[in-house]
């Protein structure tokens, strides 16, 4: 997925993204070790160190994701956030009801239309399928 | 949009990854059956784009000669109407030839 937008995020916006990601991953009640590794990897992409990410994970219960979302003022950044949330939610081939609640709540707070969310989710799914297909063709994955 | 409708729409977009990947691979290999199914999926995405206003519906193809003919007929019709308004008779297809 396109990551050019990350360089345009402010330091505060990066933390907002990571906090909401953390909240989404925890939506099913727990964060297992694989999910912790995933969050740390994502934090590295955002230029946030491990210690800070661990601090966010530990405080996940207290994250008010809707208040955090209000810190995103640019529509472009809002669209990127929704896109990344859709990626995280779909990566395990299952859309948990609470994950959907978070995506819908954040989208509505940011003024992203429901129809746009549907379009973004469809595009994310197509991208994940295409990416997986490419990995099989290039023999990086057995399928 | 109703929240539950939105949730259901998002959940219905999910296709088992293995099935979707198999279909995409078959399409890339040129398997006609799966190619048709993949085109249907593409059409659905295009429909979403049309609803979003990001593209327009495909317009019927018009041959250039058809357009030229229509313009010529229109010009002829306009010339005849002008002639009629000025009280000058003219044969169809002939332009005005007034004496001043």
**Helical fraction of chain A:** 55-70%
% residues in beta strands of chain B: under 5%
Uncertain runs of chain B are: 35-43, 90-100
> Pairing-aware structural class of the strands and helices of chain B?
mainly alpha
- Categorize the overall geometry of chain B: elongated
Most strands sheet of chain B? none
Structural class of chain A: mainly alpha
Mean pLDDT of chain A: 90
Low-confidence segments of chain A, given as residue ranges, are none
With helices defined by DSSP (H or I, 4 residues minimum), what is the helix count of chain B?
4
Distance between the termini of chain A: 20 Å
Mean pLDDT of chain B: 67
What's the SSE pattern of chain B?
HHHH
Termini separation of chain B comes to 70 Å
Shape verdict of chain A? globular
Protein described:
The complex is a heterodimer of chains A (143) and B (100). By secondary structure, chain A is mainly α. Chain A starts with 10 loop residues before the first helix and ends in a 6-residue tail after the last helix. Chain A has 7 helices and no strands. In chain A, 30% of the residues are buried. In chain A, 66% of the residues lie in helices and 0% in strands. Helix content of chain B is 66%, strand content 0%. Chain B contains 4 helices and no strands. Chain B has helices spanning 3-12, 17-29, 32-52, 64-85. The longest helix of chain B has 22 residues, at 64-85. Chains A and B meet through α6 and α7 of A and α1, α2 and α3 of B.
């Amino acid at each position: 997925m396109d990551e050019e937008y990350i360089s345009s995020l402010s330091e505060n916006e990066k933390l907002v993204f990571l906090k909401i990601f953390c909240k989404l991953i925890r939506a099913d009640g727990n964060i297992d070790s694989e999910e912790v590794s995933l969050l740390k990897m994502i934090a590295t992409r955002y230029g946030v160190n491990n210690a800070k990410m661990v601090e966010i994970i530990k405080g996940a219960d207290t994250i008010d994701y809707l208040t955090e979302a209000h810190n995103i003022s640019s529509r472009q950044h809002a669209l990127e956030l929704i896109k990344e949330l859709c990626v995280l939610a779909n990566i395990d081939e299952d859309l948990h009801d609470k994950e959907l609640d978070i995506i819908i709540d954040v989208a509505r707070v940011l003024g992203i239309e429901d129809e746009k969310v549907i379009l973004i989710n469809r595009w994310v799914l197509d991208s994940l399928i295409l990416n997986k297909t490419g990995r099989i063709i290039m023999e990086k994955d057995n399928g | 949009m109703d929240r539950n409708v939105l949730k259901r729409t998002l959940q219905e977009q999910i296709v088992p990854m293995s099935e979707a990947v198999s279909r995409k691979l078959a399409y890339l290999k040129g398997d006609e059956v799966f190619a048709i199914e993949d085109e249907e999926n593409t059409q659905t995405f295009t429909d979403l784009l049309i609803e979003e206003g990001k593209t327009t519906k495909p317009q019927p193809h018009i041959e250039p000669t058809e357009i030229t003919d229509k313009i010529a007929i229109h010009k002829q019709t306009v010339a005849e109407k002008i002639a009629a308004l000025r009280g000058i008779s003219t044969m169809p297809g002939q332009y005005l030839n007034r004496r001043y």
